[in-house]
Specification:
78 residues, 2 helices, globular
Length: 78
């Protein structure tokens, strides 16, 4: 399953593809802020662009060595 991240100002966005859909997660240095469900990765990216001005070129794969994407997002949010 695909996992992506993007930094948008003080926010770190994570897209996780799961069996029941695609989730767009929002993190800041204080922790988890919220999430939204989407049918596709492209739809999640479109929402991120509208809500957070995250350009398509801002997205990168979360390294395969990262086990917990939430911890990863919080670490890079500082």
């Amino acid at each position: 399953m695909k996992r992506l991240f993007a930094k948008a100002g003080t926010t770190v966005l994570v897209i996780k593809e799961q069996t029941d859909g695609v989730f767009l997660y929002e993190y800041r240095k204080d922790g988890f802020i919220g999430d939204t469900w989407h049918q596709t990765i492209d739809h999640a990216k479109e929402q991120a662009q509208i809500s957070f001005r995250a350009a398509p070129s801002d997205w990168s794969d979360i390294p395969a060595t990262v086990i917990d994407s939430a911890t990863f997002a919080l670490q890079i949010s500082n």
